[in-house]
Structure prediction request, 204 residues.
Amino acid sequence: MFITFEGIDGSGKSTQANFLKNQLQNDGYDVILLREPGGTIISEKIRDLVLNHRASSVSPLTEALLIASSRYQLVNEIILPALKKNTIVICDRYIDSTIAYQGYGRGINISWLNEINKYSLMHANPELTYLFDLKVEDSMLRIKNKNKDRIELEGKDFLSKVRNGYLKLAKNSKRFILLNAMDSPEKLKNKVYNYYLNKKNENF
Ligand code: TYD
Prediction:
């Protein structure tokens, strides 16, 4: 199964992705947890280029193309071979981050983003996506003391557009599970696992 975790900054998705990985490993499955942009040597270098806050003059299209090339490398080097071996793949951010951040956030044409990402995805489409939703004010509070990356520095209006974009995506696709990121980590952990079990049963 291919599972992705999505949400605006400070939503706690990375912690929950880690919890699910540990749970599934305890259940006896082979699982890998990846992050985007990143996950391969070259993709981590691209991550550094894209998120390094000193590189302030990156055009939105450059940003989208860099992320798409990082994704192509990750899909071909890691995700597709893992899925072939029946390893469960969990990815902390994936294509929906591009539609939410570069599409709704930066205003890049979404059809164009989908078109270039068709090449990156190579049909590696997630089957289950958790969206950790929270108010922009709560997100900003949670990341207040963090050393912010270039995209996190964009501020409130930008994050608002990203959040609304995510909510639109979740509304239009059955693969999404919408979760309240303000719930306790323990409650979220149980919900995430139970939704996974439901999905697994559906697939049988
Ligand atoms: P994130 O995964 O939240 O890492 P950290 O926990 O270290 O902050 O941050 C990655 C950043 O990359 C985040 O600001 C969103 C951005 N991003 C995009 O803009 N588009 C994408 O397609 C992806 C995968 C990430």
About this structure: The chain has a mean pLDDT of 95. The pocket of thymidine-5'-diphosphate is lined by residues 9, 14, 35-37, 51, 67, 92-93, 97-98, 101-102, 149, 151-152 (CB under 6 Å).
